[in-house]
Amino acid sequence: MIQLVLFGKPGAGKGTQAEFLKETYGLKHLSTGDLFRHHIKNGTSLGLLAQSYMDQGALVPDQVTIDMLEEAVDQTPEAKGFIFDGFPRTTAQAEALDAFLASKNMEVSATIALEAHDEELLVRLLERGKISGRPDDQDETKIRTRFDEYNQKTAPLRNYYQAQNKFYSVDGIGAIEEVKQRIAEVIANLG
Ligand code: AMP
After folding, report:
1. Calpha distance 86→67 (Å, rounded)
2. Which of 59, 100, 128, 153 to mutate to test the pocket of ligand 1 (most atoms within 8 A of CB)?
3. How close is the Cα of 3 to the center of ligand 1, in Å?
4. CATH number of the domain at 2-188, please?
5. Which of 171, 162, 128 minimizes the C-alpha distance to 10?
6. Cα(106)–Cα(95) distance, rounded to whole angstroms?
7. Is 87 in the pocket of ligand 1 (CB under 6 A)?
8. Which of 55, 54, 79 is nearest to 64 (CA)?
9. Euclidean distance between CA atoms 182 and 110, whole angstroms
10. Is 182 part of the annotated catalytic residue set?
11. Which of 7, 42, 68, 90 is 20 to 30 Å apart from 161, CA to CA?
12. CA-to-CA separations, 101 to 74, 104, 157, 187, 190, in angstroms, rounded
């Protein structure tokens, strides 16, 4: 069983690389952003709640997010392992994930951080927004708020996972194929 956390700022390439990891290692890809967008599309009460935060570029409250993620894991009992994309984003979420996995005799195998600087990410997100139509990718102010949220609430998870010897930094700049190779090397070297 391998449980990967994909870590990185919005636009770092987590979703793109998760698709590759899913194929290569037979893992289930769970993106909390995708789950929220699915709820919004279906007009659920969770979707309505999440949308009010997402529209601002702010994080959705922890407990709502944790409950949704745990439900999604429980709905896939046959999975060989998971790629957590965009989760955890706060220390409370990371602690909840550890406890949840431990209750199933599982643990995070590695946290892979895709590193890229803000100006590159801003360009990527604005480009993506033109294609996807995602409102939070089309407005520079919202994008900057998401970077701020990341710096304040998500960046501390670097220390959290480093303390567990599970943190791997990968250069997220370059061709998709090159970044894939870098991630594959990290996975190949996992104990
Ligand atoms: P993403 O698709 O990962 O860029 O997420 C889009 C938006 O969904 C974020 O800006 C947050 O508003 C919300 N979101 C996704 N994942 C989380 C999470 N783990 N915790 C809180 N909010 C989240």
Report:
1. 15
2. 59
3. 19
4. 3.40.50.300
5. 128
6. 14
7. yes
8. 54
9. 14
10. no
11. 68
12. 11, 5, 17, 20, 19
pLDDT above 90 as % of the chain:
99
Question: Mean pLDDT across the chain, nearest whole number?
Answer: 96
Amino acid identity of 134? R
Q: Which amino acid is at 8?
A: G
Q: pLDDT tens digits for 5-57?
A: 999 999 999 999 999 999 999 999 999 999 999 999 999 999 999 999 999 99
Closest to 57 measured CA to CA, from 148, 153, 156? 148
Q: Take residue 189 and report the two structure tokens written for it.
A: 């070297």
* CA 5 vs CA 61, 70, 124, 132, 167: distances in Å: 19, 14, 22, 24, 9
pTM score of the predicted model: 0.96
Helices (H), 55-190: 62-74, 91-102, 118-132, 140-149, 157-162, 176-188
Q: Active site includes 104?
A: no
Active site residue 144: no
